[in-house]
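hi! just following up on the protien thing from before. the input was this:
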Amino acid sequence: MEPLPGWDGCEGGAVGEVERTPDGRYVVVNGRRWRAEDPGLPEEVAGRLRRALMAARREVGAALRAGDAERERAARARVGVAKRALGERGTPWWEQSEAERRERWEAGVAELGV
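and the predicted 3d structure came back as:
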């Protein structure tokens, strides 16, 4: 297993090691397979997108605790934008050209303002 840059391990916040599938397209966490972020993302951009993703996830939790459905919808939408920009949702990054991959993350960065 190799450490995943910027990944917080999902438990306890410490940087952890994750298992990757042999093709590198997925990470396996607690036996569940998740699409890996696009390895072609510049690290600086990936870091900004990860921070935006985590902030949006925290906002979802805050909205749920507050019982604010509109705030929750907006936060979940930001989670989706960040995950698409990272390549974790939408058309798989390995099926996209370099130009399409760049367009995907640039659009996410612009929409999130990060």
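Helices lie at 43-66, 69-86, 98-112.
Residues 5 and 43 are 9 Å apart (CA to CA).
cheers
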